[in-house]
Amino acid sequence: MFALPRTWLGADVQRARAVLPVLPRGFAGHRFSSPASTIRVPATRERGRRSPGFTLLEMLIVVAIVGLLLVLIAPAFTTLKSGSDFTNAVYGIQGVLENARTYAKANNTYVFVGFAEVDSSIDPSISPQVVGYGRVTLAVVASKDGTRQFQYTTDQGNDWTANYSNGAHLVAVGKLQRYENLHFLNLNFPSWPPSSHPGSSMARYQPGTFYTLGIAPNSVTPFAWPLGKAQNAGQYQFNKVINFDPTGVARIAYTGNADEIVSVMELDLLTTHGTAPSPTPTPFIQDVGNHAAIQIAPMSGEIRVYRP
User: Fold this and answer.
1) Which stretches of 129-213 are assigned E, i.e. beta strand?
2) Least C-beta-crowded within 10 Å: which of 154, 179, 223, 235?
3) pTM above 0.70, yes or no
4) Cα separation of 257 and 192, whole Å?
5) Full residue range of the structural domain in which residue 92 is found
6) What is the SS3 assignment for 203-216?
7) Residue 146 belongs to some domain of the structure
8) Residue 115 pLDDT level (bands cut at 50, 70, 90)
9) Residue at 57 is within a domain
């Protein structure tokens, strides 16, 4: 028989080894059905895999962490909400005054804007509301026949009272406006001129005679709310009243001030926490605190808001 040289056999074996895959140890002698055959993981490994769920201990830890975070951030959210409510109240009052002036001019009549502060601890549905702190209410009424309904005389206001007749000569303009956690400052801020406080957001002029709602006498044009009730017999009694005439000029009528048009009217407002007002800002440090001044120019009707 013819025999191949050893060198040829050695070369063939080397080429075969280069082409065929190297089998791992432990599989020698085994046959595979096809190159695509798969190797199954032993069952002992599958049973050893962990379930993807949470344990009770892990869930309790997560709940505890979330609760702690809520406790830490709750005061911050409360402060943000309080600041937002105060801002909405201040600009809401500004809007009521602007709308009242527009109504007076558009309808050629007199419009009366009433202000009252009551006890915020009493449910707002209770009647009558009790004078106190923390809840400021506004109502707007207008003269039905376009007249002022009172005369500036020595006994001014007597004719308003005599002819009031449960508000029969008045008509409501819009709904009652109610603002929680708000207080009228019962003080008169000194002048805070821009020349002396150029970088202050509260800098404003208060020249000559001006009127501050919180310390002014009661108006001679009070009215009860809702209309149809006798004086001091409604849910709300509005004794502080600003009126706009058909030309849009603003006045406050109280005993002894004749037909006076002051240089400036001002409403100074402060936040409260329930029935407890926030600390009153020092008159000479008006840039500190959460308060605001709504200033009305009676002749032009311009209404501006000043805040620290």
Assistant:
1) 134-143, 170-172, 177-184, 210-212
2) 154
3) yes
4) 25
5) 85-306
6) CECCCCCEEEHHHC
7) yes
8) very high
9) no
Is residue 26 a part of any domain in this protein? no
Task: Please tell me the total count of domains within the chain.
Answer: 1
- Phi and psi at residue 112, to the nearest 5°: -120, 125
Q: Indicate whether 44 belongs to any domain.
A: no
Q: How many helices (H) does the chain have, and how many strands (E)?
A: 4, 13
What is the DSSP code string of 12-49?
HHHHHHHHSPPPPTT-TT---S-TT---PPPHHHHHHS
Q: What's the token pair of residue 64?
A: 């505890």
- Residues 6 or more apart whose CB falls under 8 angstroms from that of 230 comprise 164, 166, 224
Distance CA 55, CA 51 (A): 10
Closest CA to 111 of 140, 83, 90: 140
Query: How many residues comprise the chain?
Result: 308
Q: Is 223 helix (H, G, I), strand (E, B) or coil?
A: strand
The predicted pLDDT at position 51 comes to: 56
Q: Which residues contact 212 (CB under 8 A, 6 or more apart)?
A: 187, 188, 189, 265, 266, 267, 268
Quick check: 152 and 259 in contact, CB under 8 A? yes
Residue 111, strand partner residues: 142, 244
3-state secondary structure of 107: helix
Q: Which helix H or strand E contains 68, and what residues bound it?
A: helix 56-107
